[in-house]
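Researcher: Re-running this chain for the archive, since the previous output was lost when a drive failed. Same request as before.
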Amino acid sequence: MLSTAYYFLQVILCSAIMMGYYWLALRNKKFHQYNRFYLLAVVLLSWTVPLIKIQWITTYSSEQQVIRFLSVVADNNSEIEAVVESKGFHWSLEGIAWFVYLLMGFLLLILLIRAFYRIYVLLKTNSCKRVEDVYLIITQAEGTPFSFFRYIFWNEEIDIRSASGKQILQHELTHVQQKHSVDKLLIQLMLIPGWFNPFFWLLKKEMEMIHEFIADKKAVGDGDTAALAQMLLTAVYPKHRFDLTHPFFFSPIKRRLQMLTNHKNPRFSYIRRLVILPLLAVVIVLFAFRNKEYRAKHPISVKNVLESVINDVKTSPRSGVIIKDIDLETLAPMKLSKTYRIIINPGHGGEDLGARGVNGITESALTLQLAKMLKEKNTNPQLDIILTRSTDEFHNVVQVAEKANALSPDLFVSIHMNSAAPIRKNGKQIGYNQQKGAEIYVADKAKAFDYDKSYQLANWIGNVLTETGTTFQGIKSRSKGIYVLQAIKCPSVLVEAGYLTHKEEAALLQTATYQEKMVRAMLQGIERYLATTEKGTDLKLAEINPDESAQRKESIPGIEFMANRLTLKEDKQGKTEYIKLEGSPYFKFRDQFSSLEGVLFLLDGKKVSYDDLLNVSPDNIQEIKIIKDQASILALTKEAVTGVIQISSKQPASFKATSDLIKDGKPIHFTAGFDEITGNGLVQRQEPVSFPGGDTAWRKFLERNLNRDIPVEKGAPPGKYVVKVSFIVDKQGKISEVKVVDDPGYGTAPEVVRLVAKGPNWKPATVNGKPVVSRYEKTVTFMISEE
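Model: Regenerated structure tokens:
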């Protein structure tokens, strides 16, 4: 014990001497890299130098050995008694000292493991975006932003595109690139056996400051020193929960500001370093290898991190509204066979202000902003965008229609803003109904120039709006108040971009980021509509007119289909194999049709009659497939039919019946449907498996975690690649047995399997409110546009 205590004392003295030199000669000087490795050398030398002086083997002279032996022989009884007494347990000063030493070391080890676990929980519960060799974790955890090895934990409340956000990001990137987490982990491990040494705790604090100095210097190099200084002064200290990380707002602000504004070069700075050089020569040589910078083919910078993750991080505009789920990625424009003229009409103008927002903004001003941005953001040379007005001027609807028709347009899109009905109490207006979201209008079928194509255009724009996370209230038809849509001689739609009477949405509509999302959705919807039309794919989803069936053999007469989302499956030649409707799909028969000849109906793979379909509840429909391709029809049936309507219901979970439902000594296996009467007369209410947070959360999870470039990297040609996987969800929502059902190749299926396996727990299926084990299917679509 005395030897160990003496060794520990030497460790303290050695570190005291070296830290004393640091404090007097090196502290608060600008050679940060030198100071960093000097402190690492202090850690190593404080433990190793004392070992050179300690003699572990003690030699006794022969005379001492004889005396010891004779003493034992002469007083044998007392020696035995001493041994017997020592066998009983009792606390000694030496034992207490060892106990305290080991207990403190154990507690520090537990804290270290706890810090690792908390970081693991953040990695598991938050989305991750990889940029080169760095991983960006988007979170709202306290203490963020901070870095840990190659992981940067970013607080989504911080605007990553602002000047301060870029500086903070560069600051954390420097921590990652300089491998500061290695230093922190090494010092933390050193403190477990060396907790008794106060100079080690001082060394830990100084190392953290040096890390901040290095990162601040790099951040200032890319930004404004005054802005960073002001940011440090006004920052609020978050709660620290991760001892191994580099939180941005951690170190004392005063020293960091002094270092930022210190431009002096001490006269004896080199002498200060050379004095200690003989002692550190070996250590510095060793560390030179680990300080060698790795230069990637594409070096990591704030610019390429922003380009990769801006889609996943909130921004905080001046309006105070937080924008989420905004996809700013510019897709390559689709190739079209010719140039199309697109007329964009910003609604109202001049003395006609249109709707007024709760914050004073007018519809005429916002629609003009959107129209100008749409023309500006168009990168497709085959889209000739023309505005009906480019200034704040008034044109009535007749003038707009005449001007548009004179230009022989291919498509017409009118942009407007919505307003909700006012709420009145005692004859006074006290507010507005809180309606929100975008809507798209088409002219009534009886008055529209081309109702089907107008609806298809609206459907494509609506689909893209939904994909980008915009609240979309659907497609509607009107016969009054939309003269301009009725008078235009081409497919025409009217887009109500949002409600100005909804305070948050009105503020959102005034932000450039949200406006860009809206116009990109319109542009991509227009491109997709034109590309689909060129391939000769007539979707006719809104309504299939029986009067046109003779001219259009692919049409299925007498049925009206509606859905929130559609998927178009094409073969290699671009021919439509089937159309799949999802998102609350339903259908209805026209009254004048009591039967449908030449159409085969399949419900969950079984042939059903027209009367059977009348009893199908729309709430129980998972998806509808409309199959008109003859090859696809022959794969399903040998009957001579012109079309197949394949309906898949929401499959309930299968389970064993309880002991009171046993027949002939064997348990009954059955499937409980929605509100279905079972064998014991009870109503079974079943809810299917779902992703936590619903479809919106699932879409966000895909956007942040799915590697969408997999098929491109594997050489896949342009097209759509649909992967279907199935997996078991147990009662706790845990995923197991992930299997591939449909694999289009090019590495897409393994990527989806990986994504599902690493994702969070799902909400299990329930029967009468009780969770059950069930197998669930999910599809993920990869789309590659033509370059």
